[in-house]
Amino acid sequence: MPAENPVTAFTPNGCTASTYSNFLARVAQASSAGRFHRAPVGPIGSLLTLTDDKWAVAVEIAIGRALSTFVVHDFSDQRTLNVSSVKAWGHT
User: Fold this and answer.
1) Distance in angstroms (rounded) separating the CA atoms of residues 33 and 2
2) ∠37-47-42 over CA atoms, to 5°?
3) Residue 7 falls within a domain, yes or no?
4) What is the pTM of this model?
5) From CA 10, how far away is CA 21, in angstroms rounded?
6) Number of domains in the chain
7) What is the pLDDT of residue 6?
């Protein structure tokens, strides 16, 4: 996996880097505003470090879709994260 900007490195397929950047900003804003019981952890891919690049393809195949996801504390935090997602993607 390339060591590039985390926004573009973990942008989900079918999503632009600017939309994902908007989503991350909304998550950070909601967290700063105290809307989460606990701050979400993620994107998961930003927390992983490969000790050998030969594993990059295997890791991406095994958990590739999860690299851009977050872990939240509870259902309420999941809803808050979903609201951030909906707003970032322009759905009302």
Assistant:
1) 32
2) 35
3) no
4) 0.78
5) 10
6) 1
7) 54
Task: Quote the tokens at residue 50.
Answer: 């490969």
Instruction: Give the Cα separation of 17 and 12 in Å (integer).
Output: 9
- Give the tens place of pLDDT for each residue, 9-51: 777 877 888 888 889 999 999 999 999 999 999 999 888 899 9
Cβ atoms of residues 15 and 90 within 8 Å: no
Tokens describing residue 18: 């600017």
Domain that holds residue 37: 13-88
What span, in angstroms and rounded, lies between the C-alpha atoms of 88 and 84?
Answer: 6
Distance CA 17, CA 9 (A): 9
Identify whether the C-beta of residue 1 lies closer than 8 Å to the C-beta of residue 10: no
Question: What are residue 5's phi and psi, to 5 degrees?
Answer: -55, 130
CB count in 10 Å sphere of residue 18: 12
Is residue 36 one of the residues assigned to a domain?
A: yes
Provide the pLDDT for residue 90.
Answer: 76
